[in-house]
Structures are given as C-alpha cells and as structure tokens.
Amino acid sequence: MLQIDEKNRIRDEEIFRQEIRREIEVLKTNSSSGKRIWSLLNSSFALWFLSSVVLGSLTAAVTTFNARSVREAQRAEIQRRLNTEISSRIQASKAAMRVEEQKLERGQQSHPSWEFSTAWHYLNNTFTYDGAPVDFSIYPEYQKRSFQSLVYELSTLAGRETLPAILDAQRTFRNLEQLADQAEVGEDQSSPADKNAALAAARKSIEILQHLQSNSFWQTPL
Length: 222
What we know:
Number of helices: 6
Largest sheet: 2 strands, antiparallel
Strand order of the largest sheet: 1-2
Oligomer: single chain
Number of strands: 2
Order of helices and strands: HHHEEHHH
Mean pLDDT: 77
Low-confidence stretches: none
Structural class: mainly alpha
C-alpha cells in the first residue's frame, strides 16, 4: 500500500500534467485562429476588399471633404464681395448726398423728389450725369445689379439668422423709394423749387443711408 504522502504526490503530479495539457491545447487553438485570420487577410478576396472597398471609401470621403471645402471657400468669397459692393454703394450714396446738402445750403434750387431719387439711383448704381451713366460699382459683375437684388443674394448665403437685418434693409430701401414717389406726386415741377423742402429731403436721405450703413450685417473692412 502506498503511503498517504506518496498518493498526494502522485495526485498533484497528475493535476499538474492536466493543467499543462490544457494550456497547450489553448495555445494550439489560438495559433490556429491566428493562422486562419492571417490566411484570410492574405486571400484574394481580402486583398480585393481592402483595395477596392476600403480604399475606395476613403478616397470618396477625402474627395467629398475637399469639394465641400472648395464650395465653402467660394461661398465665403461671394459673400465677401457682396458685402463690399453693398457697403461701397451705401458709402457712395451718403457722400453724394452730403455734397447735395452743402449745395442746397449754399442756395442751389432743387425739389424733394430729386434728392430722394438721387440717393435711390446711387444705391442702384443707375445715377447719370449730363445724360451719361456713372458707374460706382466695385465689381463688374454687379454693375447692372439693383441694390435689392444684392441684399437678397447676400441673405441666401449668410443664413437664416440674418433675416431680421435683411428685412430691415429692404424696408429701409422701400421707404426711400416711396418718399421719392410721394414727393414727385405732390410737386408741381413748373413752380419754383422749394429750397428748404429739398434740403429737408436731402437730410432725410442721409439719415436713411446712415441707418443702412449702421447695419452690421454687411459691414466689411475695405
């Protein structure tokens, strides 16, 4: 009969051998899985998938990103040009009306409708001198564009948050237009011009232009 210590030793050795066998089996399994994965990655299907699908998706993503960046840059440039054109027209209109104000103060004869119309024509870049058009546009592509069309296009580029400023600008411009029409209807062009009324109209035009100019929506450093 084996001694108790001997039995315990044999049992411990058997348990140890079983542990070793299990670990070896695990290693074999992992090694087989790794080989299968590596074999799959080196297969023609995997190479085709990586080269065609994955690489193609990455290329498409980069192309889309670059195209979006180009569009955003173009959009920003158009917005900047519109801002500059609108700001320039307002400034030119206000400078012209300052000159008109000084002439009227020195005794020049005029009618209120002429003063309102002068400011309106400057904003629309349709002012004429001795029958010849005077171009105050900054960019050639905007030469024939009305003030309202420029403001509207700018609103489509700048976003919904600019709607209050756009509506205010449109109302202000229409107010100037209505003042010119109302003054013309009430005037007798054959009668002597009212210098004081014309001076008041010039100053009212300047006030309207200053309100337009104060709108931060299109203020652009020139």
